[in-house]
Task: inverse folding
């Protein structure tokens, strides 16, 4: 942390009248601000950040002397050392800017196996926060569970399914697996079939009773959903560009299917559903012949669906959630329960950085079978390359605080009349990316799509607290970027261009 970095951060906030996901402004003109543990927790749990004391967010982010730089530093140190779990070691840098005495505090992200960082007086469940845009949001129960599960090394795909028996595994599939694994791993040949299945994480018998594991049921089960009913893929075709659009006959879906079976069966059935519900485009091959091909690259979609099946969260906490495949007029969305695992980051997807696998046993079994995972760690790169080959935008990856979404879009010139609103949204966002915070941009995008949306609906849709929604919308009104037309109950929001 340098003085220049701090000044740059101050000038950014003053220019754009907003904080960011890594910059927080706080006043400390009279005394130590009692409530800053939420920001400290949020920065420690996300990507780290900078708190600048002596900046008034409510007065155009102007500078104000802190009451006492030395005392403030001591109290922040005490807070981080005595009141936060785990203990934090903040970095301090007092500066004088425009003749005002300020204090910058840098909070580093803590290691993944130490998260969540929380305010001890409130306890882990109520004192853990995460940074979302410029807001400090309480962590959800699932987010805390996910961090604890990672810390404890819990491997959900090895969990025994005690309602099932070994008789619920498909004998032919098991026989084929045993034959292949004995051939590929000669050392396994000396073991009994039961021991091989145990070593492979397909069965578990620590209590003296043999149970199939979740891996075993999902890979080799005769009917996995008989014991794990929510572990299916919900496929729908929406007659428009958003859920709720209806077709000419008033139908909510043009097609829908509940896809069940083992992982490889669900992969095949889901791809068949997609293939029959997307359009085709005509190309001329090297021999001058016309050829009809799908309007999306099936190889890229296969990788995305396979990733959703393999890397979803199979824990009891998300066992009631299922995978969505939603086909719209202008895009395909694939959403799986479970955010990125461990130290994985969106910006590292498709790079040479080794990614952590949530379901390590499922990954290993699929590698051994060789019918779904052929080239590990190349799936994201394949998606991007296949979309590029067809002249389509790169796939978009998005963390949804508990879910993970991949979006494939059509070419711009194929957008229908119904999708002009979406196209305008993209252009608007691109034009003003640098002028608004992340949360403000998200709110603007939704207001463009639906001017009648309420603040409660925005909060639920974006996963942002209502308080933060109100704060960000006030900022947008102050910037003359939105205004309310009509009453609170029956009016709508207008975007000021």
Result:
């Amino acid at each position: 942390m340098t003085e220049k970095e701090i000044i740059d951060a101050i000038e950014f906030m003053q220019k754009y009248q907003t904080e960011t996901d890594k910059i927080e402004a706080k006043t400390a003109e009279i005394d130590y601000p009692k409530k800053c543990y939420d920001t400290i927790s949020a920065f420690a749990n996300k990507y780290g950040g900078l708190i600048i004391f002596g900046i008034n967010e409510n007065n155009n982010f102007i500078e104000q002397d802190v009451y006492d730089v030395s005392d403030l530093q001591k109290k922040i140190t005490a807070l981080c050392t005595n009141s936060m779990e785990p203990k934090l070691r903040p970095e301090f840098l007092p500066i004088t800017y425009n003749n005002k005495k300020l204090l910058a505090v840098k909070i580093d992200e803590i290691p993944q196996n130490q998260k969540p960082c929380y305010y001890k007086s409130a306890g882990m469940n109520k004192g853990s926060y995460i940074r979302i845009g410029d807001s400090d949001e309480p962590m959800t129960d699932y987010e805390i569970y996910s961090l604890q599960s990672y810390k404890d090394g819990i491997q959900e795909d090895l969990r025994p399914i005690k309602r099932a028996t070994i008789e619920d595994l498909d004998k032919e599939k098991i026989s084929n697996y045993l034959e292949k694994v004995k051939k590929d791993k000669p050392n396994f040949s000396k073991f009994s079939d039961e021991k091989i299945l145990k070593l492979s994480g397909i069965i578990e018998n620590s209590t003296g009773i043999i149970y199939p594991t979740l891996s075993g049921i999902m890979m080799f089960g005769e009917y996995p959903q008989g014991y794990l009913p929510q572990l299916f893929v919900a496929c729908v075709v929406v007659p428009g560009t958003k859920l709720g659009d209806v077709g000419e006959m008033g139908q909510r879906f043009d097609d829908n299917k509940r896809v069940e079976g083992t992982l490889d069966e669900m992969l095949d059935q889901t791809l068949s559903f997609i293939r029959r519900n997307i359009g085709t485009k005509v190309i001329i091959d090297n021999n001058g012949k016309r050829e009809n091909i799908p309007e999306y690259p099936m190889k890229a979609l296969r990788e995305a669906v396979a990733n959703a099946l393999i890397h979803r969260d199979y824990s009891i906490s998300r066992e009631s959630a299922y995978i969505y495949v939603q086909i719209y007029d202008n895009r395909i969305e694939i959403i799986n329960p479970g955010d990125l695992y461990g130290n994985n980051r969106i910006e590292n997807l498709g790079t040479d950085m080794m990614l952590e696998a949530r379901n390590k046993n499922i990954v290993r079994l699929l590698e051994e079978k060789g019918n779904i995972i052929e080239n590990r760690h190349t799936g994201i790169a394949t998606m991007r390359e296949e979309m590029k080959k067809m002249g389509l935008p790169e796939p978009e990856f998005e963390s949804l605080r508990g879910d993970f979404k991949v979006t494939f879009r059509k070419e711009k010139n194929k957008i229908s009349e119904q999708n002009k609103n979406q196209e305008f949204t993209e252009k608007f966002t691109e034009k003003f990316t640098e002028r608004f915070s992340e949360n403000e941009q998200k709110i603007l995008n939704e207001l463009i799509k639906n001017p009648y949306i309420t603040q409660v609906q925005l909060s639920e849709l974006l996963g942002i607290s209502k308080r933060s929604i109100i704060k960000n919308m006030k900022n947008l009104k102050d910037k003359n970027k939105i205004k309310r037309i009509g009453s609170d109950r029956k009016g709508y929001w207008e975007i000021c261009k």
